[in-house]
Model the fold of this input.
Amino acid sequence: MNKISDQINNGSISSGENVSFWIDSTSPIAYNTPDQNYGAEVLVIGGGIAGLSTAYKLLKAGKKVVVVEDGFIGSGETGRTTAHLTCALDDRYYYLESTFGKEAAKLAAESHSKAIDEIETNVNDLNIDCSFRRVNGYLFLHPSDKPENLEKEYEATRTAGINTTFLNATPAITGGEKTNSIVFHNQAQFHVLHYLKGLADAITKLGGIIYTEARAENITKHGAEVNGFTFSAEHIVVATNSPINDTLTMHTKQAAYRTYVIAGKIPKGLLPYSLWWDTGDANSEWVAEPYHYVRLENFDDQYDLLISGGEDHKTGQEDQENISAAERYERLESWTRSYFPMLEDISYRWSGQIMEPVDGLGFMGKNPGDNNIYIITGDSGNGMTHATIGAMIISDLILGNKNQWEDLYSPSRITLKSTGDFLKEAGNMASQYLDWIKGSDLKNTADLPAGEGGVLSSGLKKIAVYRDYDDTLKAFSAVCPHLGCIVHWNTDEKSFDCPCHGSRFSTDGTVINGPAQTDLNPIQIK
Done:
């Protein structure tokens, strides 16, 4: 492996191109592309952990299933996870108690614990070599948070039935002897793409069909168009991180955030395999109150890899805090070294996208208004377990079984106690339409260096432009085809990102993240 710093210095990649450890250490998992119309009982759209977990469960139950993925298996947000498997949720259990009630908080705890068990069962049944291991997780106080909140969370976890212990220290971190923490016992971690490879192999052995580089469009109750072919099905599962079948409803219930990750080697044996999280920045302007999250992954005989994430912001809105992506990586590294000073040079860095539901719980089940279209979304930083819960719920719905969690995670639910957060996020989204009348970030294309993009104004038009490394200039409408927001240039990921609902587009205008279903319209400029 070449360290990313070496690759940047020798010019083989630009400083804005990121390397995910999971994808970098695994060959792309590719299958055939569609070449004909196809019919199945269940069409699963999305080849990440949500889609493959659902397909595997339904195939075991005897259903005829086809999976379509517009990239490769795990090449979306699943390949950008840090792969924590935990029932310690982003939103505190005392918040879930006050919002949904104690019984619902118990169900949330139970479902995430059962999701870890489900993954472990799949690993054992399919003999998947994915470094699955049970570990402890430690939640400790962010400097902005109040000590009584940690104590309140401990009591809420116990009420919810979780096996936790309150400690007057946090093991293995610098200064941990003076830092209280909650231990979440019997959590887990794994290599996510190795796990997906095992699921994909099992799917095909059970007679399931997987297509990659297969883009689904025009999704209806009858199926979808996939690369121009008609794929018909009795049930359609949209497992695409952000639902691409829905124009508005679900996108008012959740917001897209970008999160940043670094990883570097540490000598083996210096730290125990564990999960660590702080409680989040209570003073953040973001509703989600971003937090930091850390764990170890086996690297080789001499080293482990320390993986650390955080510094989140709403997608397309990093400028709101005047903190660039480069500075976010620097802040993340500084924070990480303050608690884990044994970290050596940074070998990897990447960012990912998470969907934050306004009430703290994911949305898994029937799409509002539909009887046979199902969605899995709202991962809230717990994507591995949320996706697995979604697979269990949707499999039961399709098989006609009552699932004890389906009401809790119903995409149609309305949570009145989260109205305040809903209004804050809705106000933030609405304010992004002011970009139509604001000045552009680019005065003219002559100012644009190779490998960079931006948005300029031309009369009433907003134009997204990108200058390729061969000096070719590409131009598109800067209007997101989803609901008409103006996209922003993401210099870190080399993409155009929508600040309203999180759609993202590549430098050639191709949509790479929903909810947008179509590309940016090309424009000819002089």
Remarks:
- The first strand starts at residue 38 and ends at 45.
